[in-house]
Write a structure and sequence with these properties.
- This protein is 39% helix and 12% strand.
- The chain contains 5 helices and 5 strands; from the N terminus they run αβαβαβββαα.
- The chain is an alpha+beta fold.
Length: 145
């Protein structure tokens, strides 16, 4: 992947997102994604980013399984842990792991990475792309020069 493609993905990832706050909003988002299952990258953070888009049946299986996981593990009357760049015409969707939420919403300078990302853009290794904070850099340099 080129630096430009990496930059495009990171810009999209860091862009504006809207939460599927209520379960019916999530249902509507899944319906839109299922309607056009071609051309989606399915990326599990911590794994090697996929080089190829998922097969439509892989995407549909993932959506069904992650939906079941979210409803089982996020035992709330609201969703609020799935974000899309555009709920009506999504190109990137961040799905947070209900067992690793940290400070997902709010104004955290270093929000946790999502558990999974669906995108129409080839993904980059997000953990590697996240620069350590200035404080962590100073700490590291103090230890190792």
């Amino acid at each position: 992947m080129t630096e430009d493609a990496d930059a495009d993905y990171l810009a999209a990832f860091r862009g504006s997102f809207t939460s599927a706050l209520r379960w019916p909003q999530l249902d509507a988002l899944w319906t839109r994604i299922r309607a056009v299952p071609d051309g989606w990258y399915v990326y599990a953070i911590g794994e090697v980013p996929p080089a190829d888009v998922a097969e439509p049946d892989q995407l549909l299986t993932f959506v069904g399984e992650v939906d079941a996981l979210l409803r089982r593990d996020h035992d709330e009357d609201y969703c609020g842990i799935v974000y899309a760049d555009d709920l009506a015409a999504p190109r990137m969707v961040k799905i947070y792991d209900p067992n690793n939420l940290g400070m997902v919403c709010g104004s955290s300078a270093n929000p946790p990475l999502p558990g999974w990302v669906l995108s129409r853009i080839p993904p980059v290794d997000l953990p590697a792309a996240q620069a350590p904070t200035a404080g962590r850099k100073r700490w590291w340099r103090r230890l190792f020069g």
